[in-house]
Amino acid sequence: MQTPGAHESTGLQSQAPPEEQNYGATAAHVRQGPFVSASRNAPAKRQYLVAAVLCYANLINFMDWFIVPGILLDIQKYFKLSDGDTGLLQTVFILCYMLAAPIFGYLGDRYNRKIILGAGIFFWSGVTLGSSFINELYYWIFFLSRGLVGIGTASYSTIAPTIIADLFEEGKRTTMLSVFYIFIPVGSGLGYVLAAGMADVTGDWHWAFRVTPCMGGLALVLLILLVPHRMQRRTAAHRALSISGTIRVATEKPGICRTAKTTWCQDVISLAKNWSFVWSSLGLTAMAFVTGALGMWVPVFLYRAQVVQGLVPPCLQESCDSSNSLIFGGITIGTGILGVIAGAEAARRLRKINNKADPLICATSMFVSAVCLYIALMVAQTNILSTFIFIALGELFLSVNWAVVTDILLYVVTPRRQSTAIALQILVSHLLGDAGSPYLIGTISHAIQDKNAHSFQWSFWSMQYSFILCSFVGVCGGAFFLLTSFYIEEDRKEAQRL
Questions:
Q1: What are 317-331's pLDDT values in tens digits?
Q2: How far apart are CA 97 and CA 154, in angstroms?
Q3: Closest CA to 359 of 179, 170, 488, 471
Q4: All residues at 6 or more sequence positions from 53 whose CB lies less than 8 Å from its CB, including other chains
Q5: In whole angstroms, what is the distance from residue 454 CA to residue 463 CA?
Q6: What does 325-341 look like in DSSP terms, one character per residue?
Q7: CB burial class (10 A; 0-12, 13-18, 19+) of residue 229?
Q8: I need a surface site. Which of 99, 111, 288, 317 has the fewest CB within 10 A?
């Protein structure tokens, strides 16, 4: 087992002048002595193989996450659920996910991360497979199974980014994190495609839950074979630590402890005083709120808009039309890849001229996304093509932030608290974000329908009015990222000193 907070001094150097310091993808490399070469001596191929395994598991992670929204019409009809109850299905998943995240963050900072990852993959794959055999009379078991999948997912999402941060130097860290986070939208989109495709091919939506467990089994085998049992805990670039006027490059080895240990409560208190972490986490919370609501309800919203326009018949047959899920899945994949790449490249270039570039990029993208989503809602009843276009633009600008937000956390939080910081960020962003947004949108929609005559028109309007809340939250997210820019330079320097 790896001792918590274990560090080993590997060399001493004079501190670089302030004007030579930077961060993120464009960070100036600290001049290193002959003893600071651990990462360069490590086999590059093994590092990329480990990263590839983690990216593949991340793909499956988010495919499994978005299978339910991909066949939501079928599930809603099979279990006879209202809009409010249907939204609660995703809320149960997110609640269990976020409540488990701090536990795995604590364990990930202190114990063997490979074992935790493997156990998580095995657990969520097994529960997903089991959920495919649940009868329509036992809808509560289906709800419970989604909650258990969320617990297994938390073990992976909390720990995997810190391993990638440890594998690569800062010049490559943002690039590799971008690749890792590209698989969030790609996996999400493929979840829609897989669910809709399996439902169409087999005529039974249950088969959608029997593919990702097989893929999870392969991920578990690859994890066992290719990922080292013990991995060095350090920053991606052997980040310089300022101690008594000198720089020490910190690494961690099992059984060695040269720095003071801290309790979980002390870590949380320290993070609560880190305003860059606090405001960027609230910005991520707004992102999670919007993406959670969109991911759950957009295919249903598009279907209702098409029914109102007379483009598709009402879903009365045994299997509902899943073309909107397929299209929305494709949009999610395409805009996710373009957005993450564009965000990373914009950050890499703009950091050279502005040390506050990261939060400013996030703020701008949130504002633009909010406007695009509002326009999509307003044109949905008259022009479905324009609706698809503006939804795609809204998703594109949301995706710009994925890797950038994580990079902010990794350079404003000291290395020994990064897993805890990620876990807390997951807890807050999901608690106030996508844990409640699908249920809230569904509940508002259901309440509007109850107050009006039952019709396809009011079914569409109720969802349209509910979705306007997402545009407002997106604007709030942009404001939070603007506040982050006021503190980011000071907090970055503080993280380097600890």
A1: 656 666 788 888 888
A2: 5
A3: 488
A4: 219, 222, 223, 226, 227
A5: 13
A6: HHHHHHHHHHHHHHHHH
A7: exposed
A8: 317
Cβ atoms 38, 10 nearer than 8 A: yes
User: Could you tell me if 474 and 373 are in contact, meaning their C-beta atoms sit under 8 angstroms apart?
Assistant: yes
DSSP result, 424-452: HHHHHHIIIIITTHHHHHHHHHHHHHHTS
Produce one character per residue of 411-448: b if its CB has 16 or more CB atoms within 10 Å, e if not.
bbbbbbbbbbbbbbbbbbbbbbbbbbbbbbbbbbbbeb
What gap in Å lies between CA 12 and CA 177, rounded to an integer? 29
DSSP state of 356: T
Instruction: Confirm if 25 and 175 have CB atoms less than 8 A apart.
Output: yes
Cross-strand bridge partners of residue 234: 251
> Model-level pTM?
0.71
Q: What is the DSSP string of 99-147?
A: HHHHHHHHHHTTS-HHHHHHHHHHHHHHHHHHHTT--GGGHHHHHHHHH
Q: DSSP class of residue 414?
A: -
Q: What is the dihedral of CA 16, 19, 21, 26, to 10 degrees?
A: -140
Tokens, residue 390? 């503006």
Residue-level pLDDT at 31: 38
Query: Rounded CA gap, 117 and 103, in Å?
Result: 13
User: Please, which residues have CB within 8 angstroms of residue 370's CB and are 6 or more apart in sequence?
Assistant: 290, 394, 470, 471, 472, 474, 475, 477, 478
Helices (H) and strands (E) in the chain, counts: 19, 4
Q: What share of the chain is helix, strand, coil (3-state, %, to 5)?
A: 75, 5, 20
CA distance 314 to 320: 9
The pLDDT of 42-54, averaged and rounded, is 79
Non-local (6+) Cβ contacts of 137 within 8 A are: none
256: phi > 0 → left, psi -120 to 50 → alpha, else beta; which? Answer: beta
**Residue 255 burial (C-beta neighbours within 10 Å; 0-12, 13-18, 19+):** exposed
| Placement of tokens 């805890």 in the chain | 420
Which DSSP category does 246 fall into? E
Give residue 14's pLDDT: 35
Q: Which region among 149-158, 163-172, 219-228, 407-416 has the lowest average model confidence (pLDDT)?
A: 163-172
Return the residue matching tokens 């039974």. Answer: 204
Q: Are 379 and 390 in contact (CB under 8 A)?
A: yes
pLDDT digits (tens, 9 = 90+) for 342-354: 988 898 889 888 8
Give strand pairing partners of 243: 246
Residue spans of alpha helices (H) in 132-204: 139-167, 170-202
